[in-house]
């Protein structure tokens, strides 16, 4: 009697490592070993790297020393040196382990972007040089965060979340089997483990839910990378560069969940997780004339100041007939500009006053299952009420409920909601270092 | 009576700054000011920069930490990050002064090379992006030392003297009026001012003589850059980045000397200067069979070991009939490989022994005027004899006499020759810091 031989499937795997994973020579060598192990297990491997640990900050410091402000084109030229260093060193470390690696800049890897320096968008990916390197049996290392402008052929950078987006875009263009995002935690958790010690790692989550989690302040994956993965159907695997454990699979459509692991239940859980965010402030425009078009005028002023509004609430009038209050949240960093713009428009729009509060927190409960479970809202608000937490603003989508509370009550609120939906694990989560770009 | 207005001619000037000139933010800002001043005087300016001071060494250290040896392709990718940083910072500093600058990598500036990583040769220059930047009134900053391989599109570096060569190649391709090489001394001196305190700055020198000076160990300009400038007729102006003084003009043909300054005498001086070199060692192959072809066999062995032979002397036989000694000099760094190769071929070639001596120095006297002044050799050897210095080897060209002496007598020899040919100045030369790549 003979056992059937299990033939491992050859996969094309894109692995992305952030700046904290390649912060020094030891980190680079550890990453190199993991990459080589992945290839030796029979896979094709493309690696996307960020700049080493503090490189970006050091370059920004130098820029600040030579001039008060810098042209965006030159800033991109400067910052793109960071990945050039880390990717060449990683290629050397891989070669030192007896495997073969070639590094490619964003431009060489065919990352074609628009011309908006500092936050360019990818408009095309032509990875033929990467494909050729793989065909020759090489590991391809690609600089994250950077590309080349189609119009000007100038070097661009992709802005926040850029390296994750590079990895997903390459995975889509190469038709990769998976895009692995290495980070300093084991995966995506049902809540931030630093706030909720009993938070559980999520094994699989739909990209729709992950999108809501990312938009709601979960820092582990950037919104933009999740959007890209969802649009192009790229399975993401978020995992730790410090362990060999399976992390969290973020899957383009719910049906795909069953393909990952036989052990995963086919039925979705009602709730995926709880996200929180302290980076927003609340603006209340008081005494807005109750005339059609006034709200539009206000939001046009904010848009012209390039601020991104998140939640909006138009209060019931408390000023007698003819006036109302409009509250909204926006990133704290954009608060000053928005207030200046609003004050300049006060006479024209005709409102009475502006109130500004940066001491707020936002809590979001996310779960695709809540679509068909009408009891979720009731449980949610009862839990907050039982914990003595007042709610300032509410906004909902089909798979999300978000509320704004006082900042100092936010952690209590997150723990209360996490428990109320039965998300608590029996063991505590492990948390490692910081995050890169 | 009215004086004629002097209209300054608009020139295209290529300025090259080494790593010590841009070692820190203060240096970059000082260079920026000089570049902007040059543009505001009515000129078009292209700037070639090396990596900042210690950047290259720091990158090499990192490479040594991640792997014992590195593929040459990846080493070039790594090292080319150095100029990317310095050029972007210089562009920022220039923009901070109210002028407009754009930086270009070697590849963007059209520096096309062969594929020999680490010591690539320029095979074509297509500076159309640099030309466009100038046409828009911008200052163009170009990364020195780097290019792109025509065959593979990979990043290459040009090796020693690379940034100077980039500058001259760009100057030739753009038909520039002058290529200014900024360094830490005021120009080319009649001897190394650290050895001969009374050395004089040379105002003009032919590229033919400069070539001999560079080949004879004068470190101020790399042989390769002078060769390139001579071939393409590019006037070089070697000057200090710490002063506004005129430096040394290196002119493609002697007739051009008169175009530079009316004050320069049209008649050439007999002697340009004295160079010295401690970087070579002497190898003597003892007891070589006096049969035709044996010398060729020896030099083929050395060539196969990739060593560059400088001086060669075949001694009068002192071994009785049938055998002779052959001595030659080569760079000390290539000595070990050459000896290994020779020993391996000893039985085949049939020589008796090898002697190796790294304690030698080479002194060279250079002057295009010595062609027509037969008394030069006599004065030269009498001066050495009067100073009590024994001569080990002699080699000559039409415009050069070189001798090998004991290393510890070299400085005395340089001073004796410098005085004997009346090169001593009345005031002492000023010497500044170190040199870049």
Notable characteristics:
homodimer; 437 residues; alpha/beta; Carbamate kinase; eight-stranded mixed sheet; 20 strands; disordered C terminus
| Rg estimate of chain A, integer Å | 24 Å
Secondary-structure class of chain A = alpha/beta
The percent range for helix content of chain A is: 25-40%
Per DSSP E runs of 2 or more residues, the count of β-strands of chain A stands at 20
CATH class of the domain at 12-183 in chain A: Alpha Beta
Function (chains A, B): Catalyzes the phosphorylation of the beta-carboxyl group of aspartic acid with ATP to yield 4-phospho-L-aspartate, which is involved in the branched biosynthetic pathway leading to the biosynthesis of amino acids lysine, threonine, isoleucine and methionine.
Family (chains A, B): Belongs to the aspartokinase family.
Organism (chains A, B): Sinomonas halotolerans
Domain ACT (chains A, B): 283-368
Describe the structure.
- 2 copies of one chain form a homodimer.
- In chain A, a hairpin with an 8-residue loop joins strand 4 and strand 5.
- The first copy, chain A, is an alpha/beta fold.
- An 8-stranded mixed beta sheet of chain A has the order 3-6-2-1-9-11-12-10, sandwiched between helices. Chain A has a 4-stranded mixed beta sheet with strand order 5-4-7-8.
- In chain A, helix 6 runs antiparallel to helix 7 and helix 12 crosses helix 13.
- Chain A starts with 11 loop residues before the first strand and ends in a 17-residue tail after the last helix.
- The interface between A and B is large, with 40 and 39 residues.
């Amino acid at each position: 009697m003979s056992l059937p031989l299990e033939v491992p499937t050859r996969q094309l795997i894109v692995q992305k490592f952030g700046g904290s994973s390649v912060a020094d020579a030891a980190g680079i060598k550890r990453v190199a070993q993991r990459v080589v192990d992945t290839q030796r297990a029979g896979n094709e491997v493309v690696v996307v790297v960020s700049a080493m640990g503090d490189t970006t900050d050091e370059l920004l410091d130098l820029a600040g020393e030579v001039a008060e402000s810098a042209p965006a084109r030159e800033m991109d030229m400067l910052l793109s040196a960071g990945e050039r260093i880390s990717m060449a060193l990683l290629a050397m470390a891989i070669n030192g382990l007896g495997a073969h690696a070639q590094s490619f800049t964003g431009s060489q890897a065919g990352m074609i972007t628009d011309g908006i320096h500092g936050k360019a968008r990818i408009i095309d990916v032509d990875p033929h040089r990467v494909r050729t390197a793989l065909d020759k049996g090489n590991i391809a290392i690609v600089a994250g965060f950077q590309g080349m402008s189609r119009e000007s052929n100038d070097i661009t950078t992709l802005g926040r979340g850029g390296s994750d987006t590079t990895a997903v875009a390459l995975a889509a263009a190469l038709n990769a089997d998976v895009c692995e995002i290495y980070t300093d935690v084991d995966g995506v958790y049902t809540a931030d483990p630093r706030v909720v010690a009993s938070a559980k790692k999520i094994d699989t989550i739909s990209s729709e839910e992950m999108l809501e989690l990312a938009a709601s302040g979960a820092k582990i994956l950037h919104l933009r990378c999740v959007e890209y993965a969802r649009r192009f159907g790229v399975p993401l695997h978020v995992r730790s560069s410090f362990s060999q454990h399976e992390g969290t699979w973020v899957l383009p459509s719910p049906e795909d969940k069953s393909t990952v692991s036989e052990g995963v239940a086919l039925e979705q859980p009602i709730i995926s997780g709880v996200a929180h965010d302290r980076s927003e402030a609340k603006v209340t425009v008081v005494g807005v004339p109750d005339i059609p078009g006034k709200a539009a005028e206000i939001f046009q002023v904010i848009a012209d100041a390039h601020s991104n509004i998140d939640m909006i609430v138009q209060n019931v009038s408390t000023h007698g007939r003819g006036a109302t209050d409009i509250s909204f949240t926006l990133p704290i960093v954009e608060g000053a500009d928005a207030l200046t713009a609003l004050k300049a428009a006060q006479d024209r729009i005709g409102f009475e006053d502006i109130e500004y509060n940066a001491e707020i927190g936002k809590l979001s409960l996310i779960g695709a299952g809540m679509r068909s479970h009408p009891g979720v809202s009731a449980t949610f608000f009862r839990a907050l009420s039982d914990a003595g937490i007042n709610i300032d603003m509410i906004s909902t989508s089909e798979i999300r409920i978000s509320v704004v509370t006082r900042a100092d009550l936010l952690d209590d609120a997150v723990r209360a909601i996490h428990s109320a939906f039965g998300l608590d694990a029996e063991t505590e989560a492990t948390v490692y270092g910081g995050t890169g770009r």
